[in-house]
Amino acid sequence: MRQPTITQLIMAFTLATTASAFFRLPCKSPLVVERADPVISPGKISGHVHSIMGGNGFGFEMDYASTQLSTCSSCTVTQDMSNYWVPTLYYKAENGSFISVGQNGGATIYYLQRSDPTDANYPHIEAFPEGFRMVAGDPMLRSYSDTNEQNAITFACLGTNTPETNGFPNIKCPDGLRVQVFFPSCWNGVDLDSANHKSHMAYPSGSDHGSCPGNFTRLVSIFYEVIWNTPDFDGLWYGDSQPFLLSSGDQTGYGYHGDFVNGWNVSTLQAAVDNCTNLSGVIEECPYFDFITDTAAQACVIPPSINEQVFGVMPNLPGCNVVQNGPAISEAQSKCEAPTQIGPFQLPYVDLTSSKGFAYVGCGSDPGGQPRTLLGVQANNATGMTVEYCVDYCVSRGFSVAGLEFSSQCFCDNSIPADRAPIPSLEPMCSAVGNCAMPCSGDSKEVCGGASLISLYQKCKGNGSPCENIHLPIINGSMSTGSTSKSPVHLQGLSSSAEPSSSALTSATSSSSVLPTEESTPATSSPFSTTSAETTPLVATSTLLTTTSISSAGYDVDTNGQSPSSTYHNHHHTHSHRARVGIQGYPTAVTA
Ligand SMILES: *[C@@H]1O[C@H](CO)[C@@H](O)[C@H](O)[C@H]1NC(C)=O
Ligand SMILES: *[C@@H]1O[C@H](CO)[C@@H](O)[C@H](O)[C@H]1NC(C)=O
Ligand SMILES: *[C@@H]1O[C@H](CO)[C@@H](O)[C@H](O)[C@H]1NC(C)=O
Ligand SMILES: *[C@@H]1O[C@H](CO)[C@@H](O)[C@H](O)[C@H]1NC(C)=O
Ligand SMILES: *[C@@H]1O[C@H](CO)[C@@H](O)[C@H](O)[C@H]1NC(C)=O
Ligand SMILES: *[C@@H]1O[C@H](CO)[C@@H](O)[C@H](O)[C@H]1NC(C)=O
Ligand SMILES: *[C@@H]1O[C@H](CO)[C@@H](O)[C@H](O)[C@H]1NC(C)=O
User: Fold this and answer.
1) Fewer CB under 10 Å: which end of the chain, C or N?
2) What is the DSSP secondary-structure string of 487-521?
3) 3-class DSSP state of 535
4) Using CA atoms, how far apart are residues 441 and 438, in angstroms rounded to an integer?
5) Which PANTHER family has this protein been placed in (predicted)?
6) Is 275's C-beta closer than 6 angstroms to any atom of ligand 4?
7) Residues framing ligand 7 (Cβ under 6 A)
8) CA 451/CA 473 separation, integer angstroms
9) What letter would DSSP give residue 47?
10) Residues of the chain with pLDDT under 50
11) Burial of 141 from C-beta contacts in 10 A (0-12 / 13-18 / 19+)
């Protein structure tokens, strides 16, 4: 479908009915990036890496009660402790290495009040019940067929006027690659989940709009957008095909998918679904929600508990996924030497309390375009930086605070400015682990800060007071309360070992009527016809978001138009006030 003009968009908004009301929930950063998927692989390591957003009650095995144990979320509404996840994006280098692609913020989750006059309870739209979960898309797919499920997954090449595609676009995207999943909104009204995590749900006739099959009832529609910093790799394309792939080894993109585990206060979500029907999408206009700050949301992370590298340059994809581009359905991945056991939390610090008398005080900030957080001395070591090296360096120069940043940088001082200190004192609700997650250049098992984020260590007082690392308030959301059994709603045909089979997926999707493909939708259709009045707002909101989400993540606010990485390197020399934070600073080819 051709992208509508701004005038068309404005007209579509103006004329839209409440059927196209929506609100956008910002998730400011990933909660954790690891091979976890408590829906498809409960209690086990997932086959591939996911970027997981939402409440810190997340665990490898979790239920609604786990979500409600959360003390923070990486999304900003306090009444929502849901989890939202998608596969992580990687770059495949010409020499065979894989490099993680930076995620621009976390995700934007659209909640859309879409219904249809043929709905069983029209115009009623229901909030997700407690214990509800679902999956959209199929990681095994490597080819396109014209199903509602596949049409619900789209790639928007930001900064171009090209149509959205169902797989990776084979062109560079100047403003990043936004990958989008529209979830099914028709519910069988009974089951919170199903064996394939899909068949309790169905797509409406138009995939993102239209009538539900049979007597299915309407739930609020959700739509995920995640933006990847693919321009960091613009200088590193080679051959005839685009160089990106999903964590599952999928270079086609057809295996993209999304998972949702409901963690809402259901009555709050219902009130919002019923009454927050402004057409602006601005979630702050909804009076039922309370918000945490962006900083608190960004600081809400949990440490991974699988002992493998997921960021930076790697010889294999995590989990040793091999590149499989089909067109046949993907085979199960080989496991090579990838971990098969969930381990203890991989704490984001090295314990130097007894060896060096230094304690980890947390992940602080070092915003671009402002004076450094630690102003003593600085050492860079592109290949040999470790926490021990930095602490020794600072001690040798007579300093009592050491900070590591961006994998290879070490800073020293004798105090930490309060406004750059780790979050807990400022935001009691958030877990304060922070987003320091970059492997050290000299030891990929150690963490050396992030982009504009600094891993801080401080000399212990020694006057008889204990030398202790900061206590990280980690919630382990592993299912322990078993409260879903109280629910009157059943889990349809659920067995914990059930994996979706391709035949189940086919039958689940083939029962719904078929969406016209993007190509077959007449480009000239009036935005005011019934069909396009429903579809256009989605395109419109997505398109409009191109500007807003990128700005809010701080990229195009940058005055000198540099890539995030180069901006970072030069931030002492610019007066850029790009919003700090939120940008996961993974090592990229640009910085390598
Ligand atoms: C492969 O190429 C990437 C990107 O240029 C580079 O970062 C990486 O170090 C290379 N790996 C090896 C093993 O040479
Ligand atoms: C919908 O219909 C099917 C069979 O036609 C029935 O089993 C199911 O209970 C119905 N669901 C609802 C929500 O009425
Ligand atoms: C959900 O929110 C409502 C309205 O704020 C509140 O009264 C209720 O206690 C909350 N429910 C739970 C389970 O927290
Ligand atoms: C939503 O609006 C309706 C109609 O104005 C009102 O009756 C209802 O109480 C509202 N719901 C909530 C949760 O305030
Ligand atoms: C709609 O937006 C206005 C502000 O633009 C706000 O005052 C009002 O509360 C909003 N109403 C709803 C139902 O969201
Ligand atoms: C979380 O709790 C479960 C159940 O108590 C335990 O088996 C698991 O090891 C814990 N996970 C971590 C990472 O500590
Ligand atoms: C980099 O760090 C390593 C130790 O990890 C050290 O041996 C080496 O001398 C350092 N290089 C520079 C240039 O400081």
Assistant:
1) C
2) -SS--BT--TT----HHHHHHHHHTSPPPPPTTTS
3) helix
4) 9
5) DOMAIN PROTEIN, PUTATIVE (AFU_ORTHOLOGUE AFUA_6G11970)-RELATED, PTHR43662
6) yes
7) 381, 384, 386, 389, 442
8) 23
9) S
10) 1-19, 425-431, 482-488, 495-592
11) buried
Task: State yes or no: cis peptide before 327, omega within 30 of 0.
Answer: yes
CA separation for the pair 54, 264 (Å, rounded): 11
In this structure, which ligand is nearest to the CA of 66? Answer: 6
Max intra-chain CA distance, the chain = 77
Q: Considering the entire predicted model, what is its pTM?
A: 0.79
CA atoms within 13 A on the CB side of 108: 27
Query: Which atom of ligand 4 has the smallest separation from the CA of 270?
Result: 13
Domain ranges of the chain: 12-292, 358-564
Asked whether 275 lines ligand 5 (CB < 6 A), one says yes
d(CA 230, CA 173): 7
Q: Could you tell me how far CA 63 lies from the centroid of its own chain?
A: 20
Ligand 4 centroid distance, CA of 289 (Å): 14
- Among 564, 560, 585, smallest CA distance to 575 is for 560
Could you count the other beta carbons within 10 Å of the beta carbon of residue 81? Answer: 27
The amino acid that residue 269 corresponds to is L
Full DSSP string of 134-171 = EEEE-TT--S----HHHHTEEEEETTS-PPPBSS--SS
Q: Which ligand is nearest to the CA of 443?
A: 7
What spacing in Å lies between the alpha carbon of 80 and ligand 4's midpoint? 20
If you take atom 12 of ligand 3, which residue's CA is the nearest one? 265
* Distance separating alpha carbons of residues 286 and 267, to the nearest angstrom: 14
Backbone angles phi, psi at 551, to 5 degrees: -65, -40
Token pair belonging to 74:
């990486």
pLDDT of res. 436? 87
Residue list, ligand 3 pocket, CB within 6 Å: 265, 267-268
Cα(474) to centroid(ligand 6), Å: 11
Distances (CA, A) of 54 to 32, 51, 211, 521: 9, 10, 30, 35
Ramachandran angles phi, psi of 408, nearest 5°: -130, 5
215 Cβ closer than 6 Å to some ligand 2 atom: yes
CA 455/CA 293 separation, integer angstroms: 21
Q: What separation in Å is there between the alpha carbon of 490 and the centre of ligand 5?
A: 37
SS3 state of residue 27:
strand
Cα distances (Å, whole numbers) of residue 40 to 87, 483, 527: 13, 20, 39
Helix (H) or strand (E) holding 87: strand 83-87
- 359, with CB counted inside 10 A (0-12, 13-18, 19+), is buried
Cβ neighbours of residue 401 closer than 8 Å, sequence gap 6 or more: 374, 376, 394, 412, 413, 414, 415, 416, 456, 457, 458, 459
Structure tokens at 184: 């099914």
Predicted local confidence at residue 433, as pLDDT: 61
State the DSSP H helix or E strand holding residue 546, giving kind and residue range, or none if neither. helix 530-553
The protein residue with its alpha carbon nearest to ligand 7, atom 2, reads: 384
* Closest by CA position to 48, among listed 110, 137, 109, 132: 137
